[in-house]
Structures are given as structure tokens and as C-alpha cells.
């Protein structure tokens, strides 16, 4: 891409990234929503995904600190409130912990991150480094996966409710508010990128930032699929009860 794209052409390119690289296409995601995952795999997914959920307000705080315009900061800080809540027990992180609680996972172990796969930790750290070290435009662009999250949330929730009898609407409460929040946030971020990516180089950087974020989410699912379906987890990582029983029998 050497020519300057129009705003609509840039949006089209960004949506193409989501259509071809977002994790709604990943085999683990397809298994999760179709009921093909064991309970242990669902538990491993929720535990590892917590690290990503917990980093979201932290990365948004980094982005917020880099914004010189007060109006931009006012817009962006709502993302932190959505995940942290106004008080203890509120917000997206608390709702994700409701999910892991209902799956029978130890809350302290989940929050510590000690049982997460190494690749999960590397992916989350890479994301935090990206929003800290790249341009503000690229940091904002990396959040554009929210353009595509409503579609995967609807499919994930309906599939999990239909296929896992230990999952309820209350268990999946995190996802109730996310489509509306994601639409609001992605509309803002998309407009910001279309307005501020004024050169071909900046437009390429915006597209690459979204590709990076998609690759980060994909890598997390790659690690889950490898560890819990084809191989075995890292020695210090979470082991589902059924896997632990099989290993003990061996």
C-alpha cells in the first residue's frame, strides 16, 4: 500500500483484517462455542483469558496517560471504569471472576496468574509493551478488535449456554454489557484512526497494529489448543481435574 486511502477505504481494509484474522476463526474458539471442549478446557480458557481481561484497564490507563487532549481523556477513561467498576465487585473484571468462580476455580490462583500458560503471559506482556512503546495512533488502533467482538460474543454465549449444562446466564454475565460497550468504544477508536492517519505510512501502521492485536489473541488460543488438546501444559500451569486423574493413573 503506497497510496493514501480515503477514510472509507481505510475502514474497509481494517474490517478485512477482522474478517480474515480475528479469533472467531480459530479452531479452539469454534470448539468452545460448539460444545466440543471438555470442562477442563473451558476452565483453562477462562483462567488464561483472565490475564488478558485484567490487563485491559492497565493498557487503557497507559493510553490515557499519553493523551494530551482532555476531551480524548474523558472519552477514553470510561473504558477503565467499564472494567474496574466504580467500586469493589463491579465492572468487567469482577464479572469475569464470577465466571471462573462458577467453574470452580480458586479465585486467588486465577488472579495471581501463576497457573496461566507461559504463552498467555508473553502475549499479554507484548500487548502492554505495544501500547506503551508505539505511537498513540497505533495504540488506539490496537483496540479495534472491538469492531468484531460483538459477533463472536453472541455466538460464544449462545453456544456455551446450549452445550454446557454447568454454564448459566449469570456465569456469562461479563458478556451482557460488552456488545454495547464495544460498539461505543470501537466507533470512537475507528473515527480517531480515520481522522489521524493522514499519510500512507500512518495508515499502514494502523492496519499493522490491528493485525498485531489479532495475532496476540490468536496466539493465546494456539497455546490453549496445544497444551490442553494435543500435548500437555507447562509444568507449573493449570491442570484440569480430569487430566490430573489421567496422569496419576499413568
TrEMBL record:
Gene3D superfamilies hit by this protein: Heme oxygenase-like (1.20.910.10)
Source organism of the structure: Hansschlegelia beijingensis
EC annotation from Swiss-Prot or TrEMBL: 1.3.3.11
Function per UniProt: Ring cyclization and eight-electron oxidation of 3a-(2-amino-2-carboxyethyl)-4,5-dioxo-4,5,6,7,8,9-hexahydroquinoline-7,9-dicarboxylic-acid to PQQ.
Stated name of the protein: Pyrroloquinoline-quinone synthase
Keywords: Oxidoreductase, PQQ biosynthesis
Membership in a protein family: Belongs to the PqqC family.
Boundaries of every Thiaminase-2/PQQC domain copy: 13-222
InterPro entries: Haem_Oase-like_multi-hlx, PqqC, PqqC-like, Thiaminase-2/PQQC
Amino acid at each position: 500500500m503506497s497510496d493514501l486511502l480515503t477514510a472509507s477505504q481505510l475502514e474497509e481494509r481494517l474490517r478485512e483484517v477482522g474478517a480474515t484474522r480475528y479469533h472467531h476463526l480459530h479452531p479452539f474458539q469454534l470448539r468452545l462455542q460448539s460444545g466440543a471442549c471438555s470442562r477442563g478446557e473451558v476452565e483453562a480458557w477462562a483462567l488464561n483469558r483472565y490475564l488478558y481481561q485484567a490487563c485491559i484497564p492497565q493498557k487503557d490507563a497507559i493510553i490515557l496517560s499519553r493523551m494530551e487532549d482532555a476531551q480524548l481523556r474523558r472519552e477514553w477513561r470510561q473504558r477503565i471504569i467499564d472494567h474496574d467498576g466504580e467500586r469493589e465487585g463491579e465492572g468487567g473484571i469482577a464479572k469475569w471472576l464470577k465466571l471462573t468462580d462458577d467453574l470452580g476455580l480458586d479465585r486467588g490462583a486465577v488472579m495471581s496468574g501463576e497457573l496461566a500458560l507461559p504463552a498467555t503471559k508473553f502475549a499479554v506482556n507484548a500487548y502492554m509493551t505495544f501500547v506503551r512503546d508505539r505511537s498513540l495512533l497505533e495504540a488506539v488502533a490496537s483496540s479495534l478488535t472491538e469492531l468484531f467482538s460483538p459477533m463472536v460474543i453472541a455466538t460464544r454465549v449462545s453456544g456455551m449456554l446450549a452445550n454446557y449444562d454447568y454454564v448459566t446466564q449469570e456465569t456469562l454475565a461479563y458478556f451482557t454489557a460488552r456488545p454495547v460497550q464495544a460498539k461505543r468504544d470501537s466507533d470512537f477508536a475507528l473515527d480517531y484512526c480515520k481522522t489521524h492517519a493522514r499519510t500512507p505510512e500512518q495508515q499502514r501502521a494502523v492496519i499493522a497494529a490491528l493485525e498485531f492485536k489479532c495475532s496476540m489473541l490468536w496466539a493465546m488460543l494456539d497455546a490453549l489448543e496445544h497444551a490442553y488438546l494435543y500435548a500437555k501444559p507447562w509444568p507449573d500451569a493449570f491442570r484440569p481435574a480430569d487430566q490430573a486423574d489421567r496422569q496419576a493413573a499413568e
